[in-house]
Backbone:
């Protein structure tokens, strides 16, 4: 009966340990890269959302486009806003794209809005003659 550990067993154990450690280092490295990308995307989303909210606060929207470089001097994000006619004639499509000029991460947000929020839309669907009446009665009651 033999006692102790042979050199071959030590080499096999070292190889298995190094393969396991390399896998763990690769996972940590990949996680760091993914986290940096997600933070960059979150910042781009924040820039796009901020610009979209700024545009939607305007009482009247004109069809056209606008763009800007950098939100402030500490960011690398550019934005582009497009306002265009939509399939519904009473609405315009507002699209804002924010892009990091260094990493290339790009986020796009779109929404529909009336071009003039000061005027209420015509909900009557046409002219009214005033002859129709509608009444409702509570359940269980008789007239």
Residues:
């Amino acid at each position: 009966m033999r006692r102790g550990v042979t050199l071959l067993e030590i080499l096999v154990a070292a190889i298995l340990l190094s393969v396991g450690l390399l896998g763990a280092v690769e996972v940590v490295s990949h996680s760091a890269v993914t986290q940096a990308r997600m933070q960059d995307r979150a910042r781009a989303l924040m820039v796009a959302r901020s610009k979209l909210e700024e545009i939607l606060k305007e009482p009247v929207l004109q069809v056209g486009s606008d763009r800007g470089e950098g939100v402030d001097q500490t960011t690398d994000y550019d934005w582009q806003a497009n306002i265009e006619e939509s399939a519904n004639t009473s609405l315009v499509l507002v699209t804002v794209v924010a892009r990091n000029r260094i990493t290339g991460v790009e986020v796009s947000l779109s929404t529909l809005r009336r071009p003039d929020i000061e005027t209420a839309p015509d909900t009557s669907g046409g002219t009214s003659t005033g002859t129709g009446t509608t009444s409702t009665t509570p359940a269980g009651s008789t007239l």
Observations:
- Residues 7-56 form the longest helix (50 residues).
- The radius of gyration is 31 Å.
